[in-house]
Amino acid sequence: MSLSVYSDEHFMRQALLEAQNAFDEGEIPIGAVVVCENKIIAKDHNRVERLNDATAHAEMLAITAAQNHLSSKYLNECTLFVTLEPCSMCAGGLFWTQVGRIVIGALDKERGFSRYNKDIIHPKTELKLGVSAPECEVLIKGFFKRIRKK
Questions:
Q1: From CA 25, how far away is CA 16, in angstroms rounded?
Q2: How far is Cα of residue 92 from the mean position of the Cα atoms in its chain?
Q3: What separation, in Å, do the N-terminal and C-terminal C-alpha atoms of the chain show?
Q4: Per-residue pLDDT tens for 2-34?
Q5: Which of 103, 34, 98 is nearest to 69 (CA)?
Q6: Could you give the CA distance from residue 76 to residue 74 in angstroms, rounded to a whole number?
C-alpha cells in the first residue's frame, strides 16, 4: 500500500477553505491548518468577533487544538499552514510550541511578526513563505475592500 504525500499547496488550500469560512462569518479571513505525519490534526479560522476575544486568531486556535489532539505542549513534529503571516502574538505562541515548520501564504507588511522581530520564531522552526500567496492575498484584499464600502 502506498502512502500519499500531499504538497504544501494542498494543505494551503485547506487553510484557504478555513479563511473563506472566516470571510463568510465577517471575520478577517485568515485560516490555519496544523499537519502532523501528513494528516490534518487541527484547523481553524479567525473568531475574534464571534468570541469577542482579541486572541482568537486562527493560528492560536489551531495550535491549541493540535496540542489537545497530541496531548502535548510541543508541536515540533508539526507544520502550521497559515494564509497570512502571523502577528507577533501568534509568532510568540508558535515559538513556545516549538512548531517544526511554518508555511505562510501572504506576507503582512503592516502587522506581520517579521516587521517587528524576525527572531521571534523558534530557532529550529523552518519557515517557508509565499505558498499560494496570490490566492491568499485576493481573499484578504477582497475582505477589506468590502468592509470599507460599508
A1: 14
A2: 13
A3: 54
A4: 457 899 999 999 999 999 999 999 999 999 999
A5: 34
A6: 6
Task: Show Cβ contacts of residue 135 under 8 Å, excluding neighbours closer than 6 positions.
Answer: 12, 16, 105
Cα–Cα distance measured from residue 98 to residue 12, given in angstroms and rounded to the nearest whole number? 20
Other CB atoms within a 10 A radius of the CB of residue 89 amount to 16
Beta bridge partners of 80: 34, 102
**Residues forming the active site:** 59
- The partner residues of 143 in beta bridges, in order of sequence, read none
Q: Which of 106, 91, 111 minimizes the C-alpha distance to 141?
A: 106
Q: How many residues does the chain have?
A: 150
- pLDDT tens digits, residue range 87-137? 999 999 999 999 999 999 999 999 999 988 888 999 999 999 999 999 999
Q: Which amino acid is at 36?
A: C
Dist. CA 103–CA 126, nearest whole Å: 8
Given a cut of 50, is residue 1 above it in pLDDT?
Answer: no
Rounded distance between C-alpha atoms, residue 7 and residue 66, angstroms: 20
